[in-house]
Amino acid sequence: MSFLEKKKHKNQCCNHEHGHNDDCCNHKHNHEHNQHDHDCCEQEHHDHHQDHDGCCCGHEHGHSHGHGCDCCEDGVEIEKNKTIAGVVVFLIAFVLFEFNIFEKLGLFTSVSKETMDTVELIVFLLIYLLSARDIVINAIKNLFKGKALDEQFLMSVASLGAFFVGEYPEACAVMLFYMVGELFQDYAVDKSRDSITELMDIRPDYANILRKDGTIEKIDPDKVKVGDTIIVKPGEKVPLDGTIIEGNGTLDTASLTGESLPREVVPQDPVISGSISISGALTIKVTKAFGESTVSKILELVENASSKKAKTERFITRFAKIYTPIVVGAAVAIAIIPPIINVILGASITDFYGVWNDWIYRALTFLVVSCPCALVISVPLSFFAGIGAASTKGVLVKGSNYLEIIANCDTVVFDKTGTLTEGVFHVSKINSKVDETEFFKVASIAEMYSNHPIASLIKEEFKKRDKVAFEQLEGRQKEISVEDIHGKGIRATLDGSEILAGNSKLLKQFNIVYEDTNEVGTVVYVAVDGQYLGYVVIEDRVKATSKEAIENLKKMGVKHTVMLTGDKKEIAEKIAKELGLDKVYAELLPGDKVNHVEQLLKESNSLAFVGDGVNDAPVLARADVGIAMGAMGSDAAIEAADIVLMDDNPKNISKAMKIARKTIGIAKQNIVFALAIKILVLILAAIGIASMWAAVFADVGVCVVAILNAMRAGK
Question: Are 283 and 210 in contact (CB under 8 A)?
Answer without folding.
Answer: yes
